[in-house]
Design brief:
A hairpin with a 2-residue loop joins strand 3 and strand 4. It contains two helices and four strands, in the order αββαββ. The termini are close together.
Length: 46
């Protein structure tokens, strides 16, 4: 999926919309609102 590709390309911390760190791709797939952190810059994963 695009989320898995994102995670492979950017092996940085991934957060859900509440700011909790998500570490497993399986968890990512279950979340509707995800943000991938680039330093202090948060971008939506979808």
């Amino acid at each position: 999926t695009s989320v898995e590709m994102f995670a492979r390309q950017r092996p940085k911390r991934v957060f859900d919309i509440t700011g909790n760190e998500i570490k497993l791709i399986g968890q990512l797939k279950q979340k509707q609102h995800l943000f991938i952190s680039y330093g202090e810059d948060y971008r939506p994963a979808y």
